[in-house]
Specification:
12 helices, alpha+beta, single chain, 4-stranded mixed beta sheet, about 375 residues, about 55% helix, 4-stranded antiparallel beta sheet, 10 strands, about 15% strand
Length: about 375
């Protein structure tokens, strides 16, 4: 059996790659990171013009109604260009949560706005899908309010609305201006996709009426697959930069790419990363086509790309020698992007343990 992209999917990926080459050069990424901006509005506008926020929104709400595989192809290009945009929360997890668990009124209000890029959606599900840290967690009260705190909130700084998971597996919609809600920045190694933390004190929330722990598991699978896709794109970019540098840098009167040791480093990176493409594509495909297998396949993709991405990031930096750690080259943006993806929504050790639970190999 041959699994390949359709002509439309190839066109989507090519169009997005060309758009990002124009709109998201390294100088723009460097400026966003240096100024600690929550996102780059110009790059986000470019993605909106290409239709990225509409990928997973049903056609009835003005979206494209495409599959998670299409979103994974977009994530791969965003990782390739270390684009400082609110993609995972706003364009993937929030539309999925509303699409699968929201009421008709919630869908009518928010899905068209997300499609048009008119609002940013923060997503606070880390405690529910990857385990709580430092006592964090959100509790839902019987009178429709939330208490507690949420860490590692995606797209929090610029969000207009939040999708929040509670300790029991429920999902809630919280407006950014809700009384009793405070938010702050949560610094991570990746300055291109800032995180935040939310604190709830009797905050009024709208429950997504069809949400259940199964819905959260679906969001987790989508998040794992999309983070793996982002790492795949970032890793490919690092390999490309390492090979280009090896063809130009000269030592002892020869380009360093002619040395066997450097050749082997580049070949090892390519050999390690390339199998991950099949894992990512199939995990994203399974989300829609084989939902009963999606969670396990997404876990495999996330844990495998976390490890191979780390190897590629380290090795590509080594090929550059001392130049590899300088801001002049900017290689560290991809390095940190891969490190961020490795830990978000669960590091590889945690994800492997959850995969073992799914297969009955260890006790839950």
């Amino acid at each position: 059996m041959e699994f390949a992209l359709s002509a439309d999917q190839k066109l989507l990926q090519d169009s997005l790659r060309r758009a990002l080459e124009r709109a998201c050069p390294l100088d723009r990424v460097r400026r966003v990171a240096a100024d600690d901006l929550p996102l780059d509005r110009e790059v986000w506008r470019t993605l909106c013009e290409v239709g990225v926020p509409a990928l997973l929104v049903p056609e009835a709400f003005g979206g494209l109604g495409l599959s998670l595989l299409d979103a994974a192809l977009a994530a791969e290009e965003l990782g390739r260009h270390v684009a400082p945009t609110p993609f995972l929360g706003t364009a993937v997890l929030a539309p999925l949560a509303l699409r699968e668990a929201g009421s008709a009124a919630q869908q009518d209000e928010w899905l068209p706005r997300l499609t048009a890029g008119e609002c940013i959606a923060g997503v606070a599900i880390a405690e529910a899908v990857a385990g709580a840290r430092d006592g964090a967690g959100v509790t839902a009260n019987t009178h429709g309010t939330l208490d507690g705190s949420a860490l590692f909130v995606l797209d929090a700084s610029a969000a207009d609305v939040f999708i929040v998971a509670d300790r029991a597996g429920g999902l809630y919609l919280v407006r950014a201006d809700a009384q009793g809600l405070t938010r702050g920045a949560l610094r991570s190694i990746d300055a291109t996709r800032p995180l935040g933390e939310l604190h709830f004190a009797q905050v009024k929330a709208e429950r997504l009426p069809n949400a259940s722990p199964a819905t959260l598991a679906r969001l987790r699978s989508a998040g794992w697959a999309l983070l793996a896709a982002d790492t795949l794109g970032a890793g490919e970019a690092m390999i490309g930069q390492a090979v280009a540098y090896a063809k130009e840098r000269r030592q002892f009167g020869r380009v360093i790419g002619s040395f066997q040791a450097v050749k082997h480093l580049c070949a090892e990176m390519a050999a390690a990363l390339e199998p991950g493409r099949a894992l990512v594509w199939y995990a994203a495909h399974a989300f829609d086509a084989l939902p009963e297998e999606a969670a396990l396949l997404a876990a495999h993709a996330k844990s495998h790309l976390s490890e191979t991405g780390t190897f590629v990031a380290r090795t590509a930096t080594e090929v550059h020698g001392g130049m590899g750690i300088t801001d002049l080259l900017g290689l560290h943006y991809w390095f940190k992007r891969i490190g961020f993806n490795r830990q978000l929504l669960g590091g590889p050790e945690r994800v492997r343990h959850l995969a073992a639970e799914m297969q009955g190999l260890v006790a839950a």
